[in-house]
Amino acid sequence: MALTPEQLEKLTRLKHLQSFGARVEDIVTDLQGQIDDINEGIIKGVKVNGTALTPTGNVVDVLMTMEKKATADAGYASSYVFKANGVAVGDTINIAKDWLLTGVEKGTVTAADKAAGGKFENDDDFAVGDKYIDFSFNVKAGSAETTTHIYLNVQDLVDAYLAGNGLALDSSTNTFSVVIDSSNANGLSVGANGIALGLATDSAAGAMSAADHTQFTADSAKLADISDEANKTTVTTEGSGAIEIDGTSKAVVYIATDAEVTEMLDDVLPAPSNG
């Protein structure tokens, strides 16, 4: 609780000042204990493998890098070192030369290769003309270094294919193509864009267009009404009772002539008279 202005004007005794000093001493002692605890855990410096790093602006920046040595350690293909802020730390990482792939080449087996001293001497897996891939490896035999080769026959990686029905294989270009029977193609053809079926014309066979199909359907309905072996018929002369069948006139009904009608009437009915 805060004192009033009147209370603040009152005088104090020495024992009051003594108690104030004792309280201040207790506070200072407590603060010193806290500071000591902080000092016990505070980091006062940073070292990398014994090498002290200098802080900048109360910050220590540890830059770790891996660098390849310009010249590899003796007996190794390449050597690498870790560095902290440019200072080498830890052991060197060495890449061994033993069975290190040093080169890849392609080639073709020649007669010389099969001769004594050639690459494929007495190797029945390779024949003259075969293509191969040559893998070169660096190997170590004790302290000595040498190069060994592994040859891969490319023929072993390739399956031979033959042309079946409807296909042709051009061995010079290794390309397949579709074969069309020209004697019975009926408009079928093949080109760069694929297999095509042309439309039929008056002079060539082929596919039927939609319009032709519609007309054919209509004509088929008409043809369906014509009996088998039906012939072309036309009227020879209107009212004659005869028709032409394939150009030959045939009587369908026989019509009596005027003379025949008069004769029939004379037989049935007597001739008229004035009596």
Q: Could you characterize what this model shows?
A:
The protein is α+β, with helices and mostly antiparallel strands. Among the domains are: about 60-95, no CATH class; about 100-155, no CATH class; about 165-215, no CATH class; about 235-270, no CATH class. Helix content is about 25%, strand content about 30%. It is built from five helices and 15 strands. It has helices at about 5-10, 15-40, 110-115, 210-225, 260-270, and strands spanning about 45-50, 50-55, 65-70, 75-85, 85-95, 100-110, 130-140, 145-155, 165-170, 175-180, 190, 195, 235, 240-245, 250. The strands form six sheets. A three-stranded antiparallel beta sheet has the order 3-4-5, with no helix packed on it. The protein has a three-stranded antiparallel beta sheet with strand order 6-7-8, with no helix packed on it. It starts with a helix and ends in a 7-residue tail after the last helix.
Give the secondary structure arrangement, pairings included.
Layout: H1 5-8, H2 14-41, E1 46-48, E2 51-53, E3 64-68, E4 76-84, E5 87-96, E6 100-108, H3 111-114, E7 131-141, E8 144-153, E9 167-170, E10 175-178, E11 188-191, E12 194-197, H4 210-224, E13 233-235, E14 242-245, E15 248-251, H5 258-268
Antiparallel strand pairs: 1-2, 3-4, 4-5, 6-7, 7-8, 9-10, 11-12, 13-14, 14-15
